[in-house]
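## retry 2 of 3
previous attempt timed out at serialization; input unchanged, resubmitting
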Amino acid sequence: MMTSIKTLFTATVISAAVLFPAATPAAGEMTVRITPDIASVEVMHNGKKITIQRNQDENHRVNPDFAKTSRKCPPFCVQPSSLAPGVETIGEVEVLDYLSRINKGDASVLVIDSRTADWVKKGTIPGSVNIPWTSLNPAQGADPMSIAEILENQFGAVHQEDLWDFSKVKTLVLFCNGMWCGQSPNNIQTLLRFGYPAEKIKWYRGGMQDWEILGLTTVAGE
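## retry succeeded, writing output
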């Protein structure tokens, strides 16, 4: 089993803007950056080059689809920060790092939108692929052949004599609508029951709500 991929970026940025005001930006320079060192990240999405950046309009407000604060629980209950032993919870900078690796040709990583198609159509993270939580869950009607096809063709698992070999599987980065959404947690728990190694699973708990709050680029899903 491969060791987990370590992020190259730090999730915490200490700002000294109060003590040391930034210089006036040059014409055309992004003033709303992702981090002091990262202005944007290039990815490919459905064969098209997409630049992920933050909205440059400082008066921009969050997408109304993600402005709602209260939903019935269950099913829309607040998720724990730690989902399962060995599964790492990550933030936006780490997600961007994984997307950047994919864009540079790293085939060992897959960023997964776990939501159903109706949500994906409203917008998703560029560079991600949609694998709805229902497509891996037998209780939701997913058939064994379809599940096996996803495990083998998309995740890199190997099926041998009724056993699954997960020793060379991809690192999966899963997300859904946010900290109140159970779709990516369901996908993760299902994968763990199948025997997928926990250290190969990363969970972006903030999901689309945090992504939208930060004004990061989205694309309409198919």
